[in-house]
Amino acid sequence: MQRRIRTDRSASSARNGKTSIGVYKLLKDTARAVGGALVFSLPMLMTMEMWSLGFTIDRLRLALLMVLAVPLLTELSHQIGYEHTVRRTDDLMDAMFAIGVGGATALILLICFGVVHHAMPPEEAIGKVAIQTVPAAMGALLARSQFGSRSEDKIVEKKETYPGEMFLMGIGALFLGFNVAPTEEIVLIAYRMTPWHALAVVALSLFVMHGFVFALGFRGGAELGPDTPWWSALVRFTLPGYVLALLISLYVLWTFERTEGAAFSQILLTAIVLGLPSSVGAAAARLIL
Amino acid sequence: MVEWLTGIASGCLLLALVGYLLFLAVFENGEAPTLVLAPESVTQTAGRFHMRFTLTNQGDSAAAEVRVKARSPEEPSPAGEVVFDYVPAGSTRRGTLVFAGDPAVLRIALEVVSYREP
Fold first, then answer.
1. With CB atoms counted within 10 Å of each terminal CB, which end of chain B scores lower, N or C?
2. Count of domains in chain B?
3. Residue pair A129/A111 in contact by the 8 Å Cβ criterion
């Protein structure tokens, strides 16, 4: 009798231990995600233009951004996941968790800053939080690879693929592009530039990108080794990477309504200006992510 | 193979971009902003007349703080003004001026009074 009670007690304490480990892991994961969301979105949360974009942005464009964020974050979770055979539903859950954490972080901070308050129409508050949610969610998701891995014992070097490499470059471009695109300065720089300046920025972007590609030894279908000629890496990684960065810059500018009523040449110049940070983000993605 | 095809396609796009920029650099010589005003519509809301207009910069360089004023020969005092932060080359901006009376009766004329280089 005595013995039986003891076993029962130890079984229940083991069960308690298991749930407390589960709660501990959830808390730790959430804290890590909030940390990542803060690191990535604080610059945007404290940018005035982002607040006004919250109510001026075209609702359809905002909705498109939110909808696109789901497959984007799911694929990102797949790309940075350490486990080799991670299931797609797990990735989707990760993406949803990141969006939840990102949205909550943005909401709490915007309330603290007095940007979102009770006297505001709900549309405006929702717009202000929604536009911040995407970068914050990216940060929340990336925190896993930034602040240590989910399961240190299971680190398996993933096989790098060319589309995977391009995807990560795109995420890097989107992240840095998102950070600077809302500011007035991007369009202002474009207004002040002549086409000669634009040509110099294109050359500089390509040069900087190629430096990163070269220094980080990009992988893909074929590894870049010391015997790979420089032009091979330039054609296979730098040029597509830069075009990708420009296209993402155009998308971000369109989302933030920086292309409204502007001439074609002006849109192009603005995309080239935003293309500089975007291309640095794209090339450095391997370093950051 | 895919890598090379993507690379070559990107290279062609960038060449086109550089070509276009060179074309702009050679053939657009940054002449002064040419600001053209065009009234669009007049609507009456809550007893006031809202006059919508477009401002287009047909020149090659951007203008900042473009001040548009309305003048009426019927009333000596200036009828109102709008300031546009930036009007880049080739771009169109919209604005609205509000009047107590019908702009057609008041014979309102719009004009750009000042701007600066960004």
1. N
2. 2
3. no
- Encode pLDDT of A164-202 as tens digits: 889 999 999 999 999 999 998 998 899 888 899 999 999
Amino acid at B40: E
Q: For position B13, what pLDDT does the model report?
A: 95
Instruction: Check if the beta carbon of residue A79 is closer than 8 Å to that of residue A102.
Output: no
Contacts of B4 in chain A (CB under 8 A): 235-236
The contacts of residue A234 (CB under 8 Å, 6+ apart) are A210, A213
Report DSSP letters for B51-114, one per residue: EEEEEEE-SSS-EEEEEEEEE-SS-SS--EEEEEEEE-TT-EEEEEEEESS-HHHHT-EEEEEE
Ordered strands of the B92-99 beta sheet = B35-45, B48-57, B92-99
Q: Could you tell me if A87 and A219 lie in one domain?
A: no
What is the distance between the alpha carbons of residues A159 and A219, in angstroms, rounded to a whole number? 9
Q: What is the DSSP letter of A247?
A: H
Q: Contact B25/A192, CB-based, under 8 Å?
A: no
Token duo for residue A154: 């299971």
Final residue belonging to a domain, choices A125, A158, A191: A158
Model confidence pLDDT, tens digit, residues B13-52 = 999 999 999 998 888 766 788 999 998 888 988 888 899 9
Q: Which domain holds residue A172?
A: 159-289
ipTM above 0.90, yes or no: no
Contact B10 A240 (CB under 8 A): yes
Interface test with B, best of A228, A235, A279 (most B CBs within 10 A): A235
Residue in A195, A202, A235 nearest the CB of B24: A195
pLDDT in tens, A224-237: 666 677 788 888 88
Range of the domain at B11: 1-29
End of a domain among A119, A142, A158? A158
Do B71 and B92 have their domain in common?
yes
- Domain tally, chain A: 2
Distance of CA A208 to the CA centre of its chain: 21
Q: How far is CA A28 from the centre of its chain?
A: 21
Looking at the structure, do residues A245 and A179 belong to the same domain, yes or no?
yes
Tell me the pLDDT tens digit for each residue of A267-287.
999 999 999 999 999 988 877
